[in-house]
Structure formats: C-alpha cells, structure tokens
Design goal:
Endonuclease, Chain A; 3 domains; elongated; Arc Repressor Mutant, subunit A
Length: 342
Amino acid sequence: MCHGGFLMLEPFGLGPESENLYLTMLRNPATDIARIAGSLGWDQNRTAAEIAKLAGLGLLRPSYDAPDTLYAVSPEVGLQDLLTRQRVELARSRSRIEEGNAALQVLRSEFADRRLTTMDVEEFTGTDTVCDQVRRLSREARHEILAFVPGGPQPPEALVTSRAAHQDLRSRGVEARSIYLNTACNDPATRAHLRWLQERGVEVRTTALLPPWMILFDQEQALLSVDPDDAQGKAAILLSGPGTAAIVALASLFDQSWQQAAPFGAPAREREAGDTRVELAGDTRAVLQLLQEGYTDEQAGRKLGISSRTVGRIAGKLMTQLGARSRFQAGALASREGWLDP
C-alpha cells in the first residue's frame, strides 16, 4: 500500500504485492488466507509466491496456536529483525571492502617490486574435468596436499576421486591433511571413507564451518571452487605460483582452520572444573553464529552440510531454550550468556 506516493516497506525488500498482503493480514488476523487472497483478486500461484516471499523474510510463519494457519509476525518483531539483518549485511559489506582494500595493497606491493613470482590462472568446468585435475595434481604432488572438503556427506564421485588421489601418497612420501564438516560423520559411506584415509596416513579433522572447497598442492598450486556454494568443485580455478600472496594466504587460512578443527574419531573435549557455561554441540553453535550473521535457513544449511529443515529445528529449540522471540534475539542472548565463546 502506498502512503504519500511511496511504499512504506520497500526499504525492507518488499514489493507492492508483498506489502499489500502483509498489511492486510496484520489488519485482519482472524481472516482465512484464502479469503484474503480472494479479496485481493489473486489466484493460488500468485498467493503462494507472495507467501513464500514473506516467509523468507521472516514476516509470515505457521501459527503456534493453530499450525494449519498462517500468522503475520508483528512489525516490532519482524521488521526489527529485518533491520538488524540489513545492519549485519552492511557490516559484512564494509568488512569485504576493507578486506578487498587490504588485498589490493598486497598485490600492489607484489607487482610493484617483482619480489614474488607471477601467478597463472586456469578455469575448469564440469565435475569430470575437475576430478581429472584433482587426480593429476595429486599424482604430481611432491610434498604436501591440504584440502577443505565442505558439504557434509560426500557424493559417490567425490569419494572415488578422493580414493584415487590419496591411494599412494604415503608410499611417495607425500603428507596429506584434510578438513571435513562435522556432518560428514553422519553419513556411513563418508565416515567409512574418512577411516580409510586415516589408515593410509592422511590426517583428518572435522569442524562445524568451512571455507569453500579447496585443495592446495605443495603450497604452489591451489584448486578452488568457483562458486562458494558449490561444495563439490563442479567448476574450479587453478592458481599456480609458489610464493604469491594468494597461495601464501590460502596456506595460512588452512593452518588457522586446522588448529580450530578436531581430529576425526577423537573423544569429545572434557570441560574444565568450574566451567559452568552451557555446552553447545559444534553444529548448534555454528547455527547460532550463522543466524546471528543474517544467514537464512537454506544458506546456513548449505554452509553446514545439513538440510534447511534441520537448521529450522535447531533454531526453534534454541529460541525456546533462551526464551527468545526471534532468531536475532536468540543470537544476542546466546552471545550475552557466553554460549558462543570458544
């Protein structure tokens, strides 16, 4: 609905139809959604599309009192959450700008004095092609292979490629370290593969969150996923250049992630005497962190290698446990209580 010639909720990402439906449901909370759609002259498909938009923004959800009906979240809760999310996105954008500026300064210094070598970039598209590159580069590796393997449970083709790449590394004196998501251990085939890797001398650790898919060879070449949401490397770029800022930075990122990950198969960490903080599982802690940063259920699920439904279930339990009215409030309360402390 327009007020003074403009849309009130456009700054929140709502178009005129979404705003119309949301405001109508707020003003008529007891009216059936089908009747509201009829009064707006909408068909089933159009209604479903607008409901999905509002649900994605957290402005519409199933009623707790009557799960078969839809509830329009009050503006002081729903719109405040959207404002918080926008603030988070703005902060993340500023952080990316600062990181980009830092990278620019590094590269400017590198190419100004030519103290470091140049870097070649190649692009490979298609799972078959990328898998062939993994096998080739693994076969040519002389000292070390480091890998981020996100995505949780691994598909069969990824397990086959990994076996081929790691089959004879120990006999050639090549060290290998891989970091998987904790959720990979929930899949019997992936779990068996991690044990197979360990039996062949590969060090394996797991963690709740990982950067995008990457394999680093001898700290000279890095194979990276083109799409951050692509956990299997269906399209990849190969960076070649020992000593370049990019390779050095990726190696440093791996070392930091390695220190924070836990050895695969190791028993859970014992708590110190006097530690009264609430103990959260790694994945639960990660869900809290991602939701606090403004990730949607679907985005958080892809990041953690679990379904969006599982993310929603974890978030719901946390909200109940914390007595929070929204996910952002749950994140803030958890942070205040020290739940997110290392």
